[in-house]
Write the structure tokens for this entry.
Amino acid sequence: MVTAATPPTLSMETSPQPLPAATAATPLIEVEHVDFFYGATQALRDITLTIDEHRVTALIGPSGCGKSTLLRCLNRMNDLIEGTRVARGSIRMRGVDINGPDVDVIELRKRVGMVFQKSNPFPKSIYENITYGLRLQGLKNKARLDEIVEKSLRGAALWDEVKDRLHTNGLSLSGGQQQRLCIARAIAVEPDVILMDEPCSALDPLSTSKVEELIHELKTRYTIVIVTHNMQQAARCSDKTAFFYLGRLVEYGETRTIFMNPANPQTEAYVSGRFG
Amino acid sequence: MLPSSGQPADFPVMKRFFDSELETFRSHLLLMGETSIRQVRDAMKALVESDAALAHHVIAADDELDTLEVKIDEEAARYMNLRAPVASELRLVIVGMKASHDLERVGDEASNIAKRAVRLSAEPPLKPYIDLPRMSGIALEMLRDALDCFLNGDVQKALAVCHRDTEVDQLNRQLYRELTSFMLEQPATIGRALELMFISKSIERIADHATNIAEEMIYLAKGQDVRHSEQVKKPASPAT
């Protein structure tokens, strides 16, 4: 006699399984249980995540969720704001606690460059914008500086547009070109990480497209962390996405999972534009 | 549904002005499902009762499904183009397009059955209609269960649909053997036996489409593509 078999329980009772990453990733920055305060106001609550090397990590979430705060924690830019403190937890880069007493903050910021929402070239020539940091570091060799300027501008996909006017003022460039100049300035010092805080929010679609192309190219040499309010930009540019809300990390995973099959209904509501 | 445990309780979720477009899309898909089920049921009724008029009605009504398929495709393309859906919404649009294609094919099979029912209605039955209604009954249950999953996200039910497909396959093979014997023993029955074989094949295809829809609904509900996986194969029955 044959009896009906009990149907097997589908493994879907648990949360969806993440899709495998395209290639193996190496952790570069490890954030563990970080609480961060502006004075008495807690901006980050128990944040734990890992930033993988040579990957683009997008931080998304509504205004005030803590994503920019976390970004600025990664190169201690928050130190410049009075009353701020990492009250708990650690941020390690290549195993070294970046908030440790022996860490040289200037050296850290060389390793972890930053590009801001509004392009902020120095009121100097394109050439000087790129070489400013290098000169501060004591590099004076003209041939070497020329070489780095060309390499950085090529790296920022700006060389062909400005190679004949390197000594004109950086502020004379278009908004998109100025933002790419800032990226060139950031990569001139050969950082490990580039932090981008809404780098395209003030740019037109064409310039945005160029910066996104650039992000895609840069990740082969640098690790990129980008804060963006543009969901499609996060979907297009990033390998991993972290969703923050009210200072908490709600969900973190492969971008394709976050945008195709997020585990948390809040993430789903946010990426679908139903938050608010 | 919001918020999940351990998350802030004040996560505001709003309705968007274009949410109604998704509701329309869903209702068109459901209408297509109901229409295709009605078409199969009526085609089989026409066959069993030798009702040529009903069969003609089924053939004429196939246009309804064709029109709905085109409408669903248009709505899906428009929504993807203008609303840039992500997550479960994107899965809904993808699944809607695929399921509507399956349902349109179900309608075509119903129409094929009806055409053969018209021809068979002019002749005496080869044998009592027992196996074909049994097969179509299972196929219709599979379709209904697959569409129930669309309504309530019951993944286990959808999985059971996939497992039932082999039941219909077996009945189809059994009927094929039986009708072959008829043809060998009584060559005068070849014409009618072939019509019944094709009807059996149509029902088997309807069950295949129901299985496809069930797999699509699992993808919609869980984001997991289970096609061709071990999960959708019929579990082995333990021998006692």
